[in-house]
User: Which sequence fits this backbone?
């Protein structure tokens, strides 16, 4: 310890002459996405999440000798659509391989995957990076490979009875493994990539993307190096359970590596687990020995051929990539562009709306049916009021119980000045808690109508003027801002229900003549 | 008598040959492997044992054809075979090839004599018979050995005592459970194959052994294509005539004196090139040896040419009139 301090002090002056090089962090992602399909990749058993233990297990899934894999056509279609949406080259011929390792929840002793020739290669994803408090920017990451493979079963450990049990419901479920190049630098970029990927997969309906169900799993490879040097030794972080955790885990791991190196330590190639509770990465206890998976071609599955001819049609034996490309819906980035062009939204608003599919649906639906309402009123209400309310409750907007019709009714009342913005905000909460009650009834019940009658307004204003003599004086001396205090008083007196536009007009009228 | 076997390197044809019955290994992919316990998936085919060739056709007609549950079955619909009556069989258009490489070390004089006699018989009856070459035949046993051990290592990985089968009493850890279950459950032959197979599949060995074996396998398959589909018509043959086994059935003491690998090398020499190439082959009994044991010959044809293969087999069957039961007297006398 002493030695290193002395040494550092001794060498510091020399270092000062050399231009200081910056540390760079490098992040690459591997994503496993469960393909949304009614049955497994190679067997006919069901695939619903949460089915009773070991109830969705075909003989093949339990590795009964004599059973053979039969490739699920729907899964190949989903894989191809996903590849196309991510700009990949779909390979005319791809193959399946056996990857051998022993694990209690891997019944065959091998996983069928695509190692030598994957379904697709060389794609890329361009996505907006959202960092709180920073300007949004776009980043691109290369997608090296997209392959089809089987999921494993699940081991359940009973600590009390000291035994392990195996559930094979997940064994053989279809996965797409997406291997991205290490083109990212930060946790936010990684989280943004995954967020965009989830939007795309959901549009394609090829994956539910429910991370909490394990339908989408993210492993991150992280390293640091000095600018100009080759890439450093990387660690792999697994067990990342949510989009937010991706950013946290990677940021933590980058900082841990920087700190390790700063303290004279060395980064070792290891697998670390994300501990979400304590918000840190932890080295996996059983140190992984270098595995040799003894890959071998899967002899029971012939090579997978696809038809790459433009304009071709799919047949019983051969899927047409061109035909599948016609089934690809509008992708998130196209939607953003459309929002910019057709709805005159700014880029940031478009990104927020597209990133919350439910907000986008509501926006498009409300904008269509209330054509005289300015788009700005709609998206401001959705983003500034609805989204803020949900964030405050730590509630996923998707889970908010307010329907599009409910939002429409609130906006209609707001637009017709039946209620003011304060009341509209209150209605969000009321409607979320009482989703079955009509907006008009809630307004009646909670007496939220805006006060618009000139007499009532004038009466309120007069009283406010009386209450705020000091502000009145200042205002009349020319301090325009003092009017806010008086307006605020009216709001208070009216229990936030006065029509503020009318109040301001009225106050100006009442206070100006005396100035003459 | 009808029975189903499996044939990876000759396991239907060899016993059929020794026992004096008909043994057919159909074209790879003609019969579904669904339900067949795998040994070497890319060579395994369900085989058919019968007393006669026509019984064999009946069984084949019942079980052949595409199966949704086996992706390696041939997709085109199977056309049921119908063999002509013996009298209607015309050998004048049939070209028979005698591959010289099958005249190998260890071939017994009796088998060689049987082989020559049947070749003569075919020639005398109008078939064109000539010598051909399948130059890579001798490599087959090595290729087979490598592919077999690799696939066995892979296919046996499922026997871990977790889902089914023997489970050892050691439950200290999953690894211990695997190790003991597998140590107790497998015999020496299987253990040797698993260890060798896993060694051959290591990343550093894969290209040298597995990949190379696949390439040589291709050469072996091409040997067959060259004789069955030669561009020059005069070089083409329809049927290959070979021994099935090099000798009559050996005594247990002779058999047990060899290692498993040598047993295969001798027994499978003539049979497993057909598994490498995927072509159909049938063993038919011809006569009894001096010792009263059946001697058989093998016929091979191009893929999916079972119709001609079994037609010629049926013709030979009718000529040689082999019936092991009829020879029972002679059988007993020789012991």
Assistant:
């Amino acid at each position: 310890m002493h030695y290193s301090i002395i040494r550092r002090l001794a060498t510091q002056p020399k270092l000062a002459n050399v231009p200081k090089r910056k540390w760079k962090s490098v992040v690459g992602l591997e994503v496993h996405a469960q393909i949304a399909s009614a049955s497994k990749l190679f067997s006919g058993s069901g695939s619903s999440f949460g089915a009773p233990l070991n109830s969705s297990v075909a003989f093949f899934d339990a590795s009964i000798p004599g059973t053979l894999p039969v490739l699920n056509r729907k899964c190949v279609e989903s894989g191809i659509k996903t590849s196309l949406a991510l700009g990949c080259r779909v390979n005319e011929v791809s193959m399946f391989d056996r990857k051998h390792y022993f694990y209690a929840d891997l019944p065959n002793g091998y996983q069928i995957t695509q190692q030598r020739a994957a379904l697709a290669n060389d794609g890329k994803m361009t996505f907006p990076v959202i960092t709180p408090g920073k300007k949004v920017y776009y980043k691109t990451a290369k997608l090296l490979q997209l392959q089809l493979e089987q999921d494993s079963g699940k081991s359940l450990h009973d600590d009390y009875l000291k035994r392990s049990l195996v559930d094979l419901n997940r064994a053989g479920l279809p996965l797409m493994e997406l291997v991205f190049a290490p083109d990212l630098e930060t946790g936010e970029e990684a989280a943004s990539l995954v967020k965009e990927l989830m939007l795309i997969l959901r549009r394609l309906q090829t994956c539910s993307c429910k991370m909490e169900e394990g339908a989408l799993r993210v492993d991150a490879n992280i390293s640091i190096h000095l600018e100009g040097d080759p890439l450093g030794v990387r660690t792999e972080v697994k067990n990342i359970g949510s989009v937010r955790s991706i950013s946290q885990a990677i940021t933590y791991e980058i900082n841990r590596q920087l700190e390790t190196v700063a303290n004279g330590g060395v980064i070792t190639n290891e697998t670390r687990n994300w501990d979400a509770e304590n918000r840190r990465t932890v080295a996996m206890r059983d140190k992984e020995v270098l595995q040799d998976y003894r890959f071998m071609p899967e002899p029971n599955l012939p090579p997978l051929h696809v038809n790459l001819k433009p304009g071709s049609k799919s047949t019983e034996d051969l899927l047409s990539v061109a035909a599948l490309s016609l089934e690809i819906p509008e992708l998130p980035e196209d939607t953003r562009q459309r929002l910019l062009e057709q709805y005159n939204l700014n880029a940031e608003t478009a990104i927020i709306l597209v990133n919350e599919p439910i907000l986008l649906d509501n926006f498009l639906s409300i904008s269509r049916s209330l054509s005289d309402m300015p788009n700005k009123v709609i998206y401001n209400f959705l983003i500034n009021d609805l989204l803020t309310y949900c964030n405050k409750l730590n509630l996923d907007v998707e889970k908010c119980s307010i329907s599009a019709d409910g939002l429409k009714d609130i906006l209609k009342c707001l637009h017709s000045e039946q209620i003011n913005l304060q009341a509209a905000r209150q209605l969000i909460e009321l409607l979320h808690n009482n989703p079955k009650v009509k907006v008009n009834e809630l307004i009646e019940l909670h007496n939220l109508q805006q006060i618009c009658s000139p007499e009532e307004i004038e009466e309120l204003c007069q009283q406010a003027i009386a209450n705020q003599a000091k502000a009145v004086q200042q205002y009349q001396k020319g301090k325009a801002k003092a009017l806010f205090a008086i307006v605020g008083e009216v709001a208070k007196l009216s229990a936030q229900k006065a029509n503020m536009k009318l109040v301001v007009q009225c106050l100006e009228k009442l206070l100006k003549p005396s100035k003459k | 008598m009808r029975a189903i076997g499996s044939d990876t390197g000759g396991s239907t044809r060899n016993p059929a040959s020794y026992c004096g019955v008909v043994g057919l290994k159909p074209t790879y992919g003609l019969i579904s492997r669904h339900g067949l316990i795998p040994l070497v998936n890319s060579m395994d085919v369900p085989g058919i044992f019968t007393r006669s060739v026509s019984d064999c056709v009946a069984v084949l007609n019942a079980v052949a054809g595409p199966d949704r549950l086996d992706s390696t079955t041939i997709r085109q619909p199977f056309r049921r075979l119908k063999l002509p009556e013996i009298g209607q069989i015309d050998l004048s258009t049939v070209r028979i090839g005698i591959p010289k490489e099958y005249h190998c070390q260890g071939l017994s004089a009796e088998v060689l004599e049987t082989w020559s006699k049947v070749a003569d018989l075919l020639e005398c009856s109008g078939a064109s018979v000539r010598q051909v070459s399948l130059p890579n035949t001798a490599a087959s046993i090595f290729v087979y050995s490598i592919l077999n051990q690799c696939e066995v290592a892979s296919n046996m990985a499922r026997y871990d005592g977790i889902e089914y089968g023997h489970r050892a009493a050691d439950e200290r850890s999953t690894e211990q459970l695997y190790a003991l279950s597998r140590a107790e459950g497998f015999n020496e032959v299987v253990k040797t194959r698993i260890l060798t197979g896993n060694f051959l599949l290591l990343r550093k060995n894969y290209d040298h052994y597995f990949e190379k074996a696949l390439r040589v396998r291709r050469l072996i398959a091409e040997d067959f294509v060259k004789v069955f589909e030669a561009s020059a018509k005069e070089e083409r043959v329809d049927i290959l005539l070979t021994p099935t086994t090099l000798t009559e059935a050996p005594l247990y003491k002779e058999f047990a004196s060899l290692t498993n690998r040598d047993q295969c090398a001798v027994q499978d020499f003539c049979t497993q090139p057909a598994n490498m190439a995927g072509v159909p082959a049938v063993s038919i009994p011809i006569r009894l040896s001096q010792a009263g044991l059946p001697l058989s010959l093998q016929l091979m044809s191009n893929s999916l040419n079972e119709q001609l293969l079994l037609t010629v087999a049926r013709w030979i069957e009718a000529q040689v009139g082999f019936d092991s039961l009829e020879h029972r007297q002679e059988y007993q006398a020789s012991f």
